[in-house]
Structure prediction request, 540 residues.
Amino acid sequence: MPGLVLAVHDVFPEALMLLVGLLYLIATVAVFALTSLATRRAWARPTVADVFTDHMVLQRDVDLPVWGTGDPGESITVEVAGATADARADADGAWRATLPPLSAGGPHEMVVRGAESVAFADVMVGEVWIASGQSNMEWPMSASLHVAEYLPAATDADLRLFTCPHVMFDEPVDRVDGSWTPCTPQAAHGFSAAAYHFGRHLRQELGVPVGLINASWGGSWIEAWISRPTLESDDAFAEGLARYENALRAYEAGMADMAWRTHEYRVGMRSAMQGGGEFPAEPTPPGDPREQANRPAGMYNGMVAPVIPYAIRGALWYQGESNAISSLSYAYRGLLHALIQDWREAWDMGPFPFLVVQLPDWLMPPEEPEDDMWAEIRESQAAALELENTGLTVTLDIGDADDIHPPNKRDVGARLALNALRIAYGQDVLDSGPTYAGMQDEAEEAAVRISFDNVGAGLTTVGGKALAGFAIAGSDRKFRWAQAEIDGDTVVVRSDLVRHPAAVRYAWASNPLCNLTNDSGLPAAPFRTDDWPGITDDNQ
Prediction:
């Protein structure tokens, strides 16, 4: 046989090459045809936004947007739990259908039909919340207090978790690399502890499926979570955005002829060696402003925008440390208002509940009353209550003087759940400690009487100890520690050093020694009766 092959090759070389070429052409055409068919099938199959996966939870009792891409003009039908919605892809291939409200329940199958079909299994209908912020929201179950008690028992098929990975972009994107997961100890291990305990309490109280979307990033500033148009719409915010843009332009302009890019740089080698110094083997590239965690709108674009307008009940927000440390406590109130309104407008679901965690106690208690940037950002966070359907979770009693990341996230989640039960679900629950309501000057006694809301069955102190945490000042604006006594639903405040009181402050410090609560054990919120300028008022 080898001899025959050689003979054919020797006698008919052109014929053999022609045959080989013909076979190669046939094979190429076949592969191309199969690839084209596969490509057409891939394009023919409609895609659905990444937030829609197996095991998802859909928000009950509201219209449900479902969106994705397909071929231009393609007809799309979405079906789940007996409900249907139709849409047609626009010229760019984008489509959006809106399902009618569904009742809590499941599991269901969601089917999206176009030229072909996409199906999602084990779909539940219940309550959906998004949790966002920085490290104290991101803080995982595995590193939190009470982990040994709660993590092994974290199996709940009707509690579903979705985590948005850390990504930032200059423009909003529609992709998010995540998936819904039924809660197990393994799934909860790295999930937000505050959000988990919030969801666990809702499951107990409501008895319906609960879905939690975690979009948080340690060290982030609030500006990173607000959309660019909103930042540009206010001069106070636009200034910070302009600083970022200027830094970016300077970085890009300076990169053109820098040693790091051209790989050419001069070193005074002889001088360096004689002086006992050294020079690097290669230069270090400068920091890119786009890689900074405080990049304006970056996290909104990469972690929030991809899940909008997935229907939710509300949002949880635990952030502020980075802004306070940067002495931007006063400016924070405007930014937090802007973020809340920004998200509500983007979701287009009306003023959905927005629940804020006020920063906990941290650092050493002060020896004397003083102005404090941590106290000022707590006041900025409390200012969110000026907007409708907002709640404030006070955590002054569960912080850690030595750790900006207090490990007790169980009580944070429980208190957020109390906020939600009242604000989102209309339950008659006491969801807050005492809050400042007003003051009355009692000049004859050289005292001030402070009245409170949210007292429950009455005011009390932790452990029944003497009331602490109050300071009082006269017109000289010099605060002194005060004696304070509970009188019914009020507190009478005085000091022998202040004969003509003008203002009272409570828990006005990074780590105040304070102990006022209501009968439910919920701590009183910090407050001040004055409006004197703070130490961060002029910072932007």
Observations:
- The chain is about 30% helix and 25% strand.
- Confidence is low (pLDDT under 50) at residues 1-22, 27-43.
- The longest strand covers residues 117-133.
- The CA atoms of residues 64 and 99 lie 5 Å apart.
